[in-house]
Structures are given as C-alpha cells and as structure tokens.
Amino acid sequence: MSDALISAEEVVASARALEQGVRWDDASSVRDIEAMYTRALGMLQECSITEVGVSDLLRTTHANRALVRLRLGENRGAEEDGRAAKALEALASAAPASRAEAACARQRGDEAYAARDWARANDEYTAALELVPDQPDLLAQRGMARLMLGDTEGAAKDDAAANQAMDEQRPEQIAAVTSRARQEREAGSLFFKQGHVPQALQSYSRALALVPNDDAVLANRSLCHLKLGDADAALEDALAAIKVAPNNAKAHYRRAKACQSLGKLDDALTAMEEVCRLLPNAKDMRADRDALAKQLNVA
Predict the structure, then answer these.
(1) What does the pLDDT read at residue 266?
(2) What is the mean pLDDT of residues 242-261?
(3) Looking at the structure, do residues 46 and 104 belong to the same domain, yes or no?
(4) Does the residue 191 lie in any domain?
(5) Share of the chain above pLDDT 70, in %
(6) 190 assigned to some structural domain
(7) How many structural domains is the chain composed of?
(8) Is residue 191 predicted with pLDDT exceeding 50?
(9) Structure confidence by residue, pLDDT tens digits, 102-111
C-alpha cells in the first residue's frame, strides 16, 4: 500500500470521527470536515487508480463529501460529488483485468508524452484504447501525440472521435469527468501555492488529459514549466492556450516570458505588446514591455 493511500485513509478516518460529534449548525466545523475530505481526494490523485483500495476510497470520499456539502447548502458541489461517486461505482463493475491493463498502458503513455517520446506515447494510448474503447480523454491524448508526430489526419480523427464519445456519454459520466478535471486543477493550484511545482505540473497535466482545451490550465502549466526551467514546454503550452483563447492575457504573458528565456526577444516583445493591448491599465505589464523594448533599442 502506497504512503499516499495510507495518508488518505488516515485523513478520511479522522474526518468521519469528527462527523460523529459535530454540531451541524456549526458551519466552521462542518467546513473543516469538508476540507479534510478535499485533502484526502488530493492525496488520492497521487495514487495509481489500479492500486488496491484507491478506487473504493475515492468513491467513499466523494460520497461522504457530498453529504457534508449538502449540510453546508452547497447543492451543486454535492451533486458533483454524487455523480463522481456513481461514475466510480460504474467503473468498478466493468471488466477489472482490462481496466487495470488499460490504466497501466495509459500511465506509460503519459510518461512517454512527458518525455516527448511521441511515438511510444501513441503506441501506449492505442494499446489502452484497444482495452477500453471510446474513452474521450485517451482519444484526445493520442490525438495530441499524433499531432506532435506530424500525423494531422490521425489527430483530427481522434479529436472528432473524442468529441463524439463525449457527446454520447451519459450526463453523469460527463459531469464526473468535468468534476475530476476541476479537482485536478484545484489541486494543481494548491500545490503551486505551497511551492510544490512538480506536483502542480502533474495535477495540471491530469486535468488537461480530461479537458484538453482548457486555456486557463494550459497557462498555469506553462508557468510550472517556466519555474522548472523548461522554456520550450512553457512556450508550447502558452501557444496552445492562445490558440484556444486568443484574448487570454495570462497566456500571452507566459509566451513572452518563455520567449525571453529562449532568447527570442522580438517574439517576447510582440507578446508583451498583446498583453498591454488586453490589459491597458496594467502598469507592471507596460514596464515589462518597455524594458524589453529598451533591450532591443526599440523606441
């Protein structure tokens, strides 16, 4: 049993113990319990879904947090947790061996993708899809790998298939995917604030695997790459975010910083000009632009 799973079990047990004696009209105490379940869910994201006990604890924790959120009057959050719990229950009832093998292939594919081994990532995602067909996030990831390999036709087919699969999913499954992506995004933001940049990068990557065209998450992951010294990857994410949302000022700023790190000062200045156009009252952005212009001796 992994350390993350053990820690999550301890947090859930503590939360359930607190529930036994809590006054449900004490919003502060109830909020503390909700935070404990949220913390446990964050820990479980570090575990492999194939690890014994992870899926069950995920389902239980979502169900418990749903009840707590109902007590707090947060009906929307409770509904999302309920749907996530139901989706996990449905997943548990499907072919365990195939599901486990597919999860392993998916993990190998993610590792290959992170290493920019596009060919191996494509092969592993294909292997996973043979075991669990029509999975939107897998199709989207394979589409991205194929795009990197220059297979634009294959990438377009995967993108179309991913969209079709999403359209055909039951509403609760779609909600579960969206909810999981949001949890990963929130976990990434929390990790980043705590200074755990590699973990933030992993959480944002998992969120993008579920919802690939989230420009806000792409911009956040771009910053993680910058903090870790990978300006090429930072630029790649920034450009992807801009393609999805041309008016995302944060994405243009990430592009500027990545280009600056790569010595592409002309491109960096162009990006900063766009940031200043989108944020005309941001004095610090104008200062950054002027500093770049001075470096290039542009009046």
Answers:
(1) 94
(2) 95
(3) no
(4) no
(5) 88
(6) no
(7) 3
(8) yes
(9) 778 888 998 9
Q: What is the pLDDT of residue 1?
A: 63
Render pLDDT for 132-189 as a digit per residue (tens, 0 to 9): 777 777 888 899 999 999 999 999 999 888 877 766 655 555 566 677 788 888 888 9
Residue 56 and residue 106 share a domain: no
- Structural domain range at position 119: 96-168
Q: What is the CATH number of the domain that holds 278?
A: 1.25.40.10
Same domain flag for 46 and 78: yes
Q: Which amino acid is present at 40? A: A
Q: Determine, yes or no, domain membership for 28.
A: yes
Assess whether 164 and 218 both reside in one domain.
no
CB-neighbour burial class of residue 76 (10 A; exposed 0-12, middle 13-18, buried 19+): exposed
85 and 112 housed in the same domain: no
Domain boundary among 74, 92, 110: 92
Task: Give yes or no for a contact between 190 and 122, defined as CB atoms under 8 angstroms apart.
Answer: no
- Contact (Cβ atoms closer than 8 angstroms) between residue 290 and residue 275: no
Measured CA to CA, the distance from residue 295 to residue 299 in angstroms comes to 10
Residue type, 16: R
Task: Give me the DSSP letters along the chain.
Answer: --HHHHHHHHHHHHHHHHHHH--TT-HHHHHHHHHHHHHHHHHHTTS-TTSTTHHHHHHHHHHHHHHHHHHTT-HHHHHHHHHHHHHHHHHHTS-HHHHHHHHHHHHHHHHHHHTT-HHHHHHHHHHHHHHSTT-HHHHHHHHHHHHHTT-HHHHHHHHHHHHHHHHHS-HHHHHHHHHHHHHHHHHHHHHHHTT-HHHHHHHHHHHHHHSTT-HHHHHHHHHHHHHTT-HHHHHHHHHHHHHH-TT-HHHHHHHHHHHHHTT-HHHHHHHHHHHHHH-TT-HHHHHHHHHHHHHTT--
Q: Give the Cα separation of 40 and 276 in Å (integer).
A: 41
Answer with the one of 168, 183, 202 that is the final residue of a domain. 168
Q: Which whole number is the average pLDDT over 208-233?
A: 92
- For residue 181, tell me if it sits in a domain: no
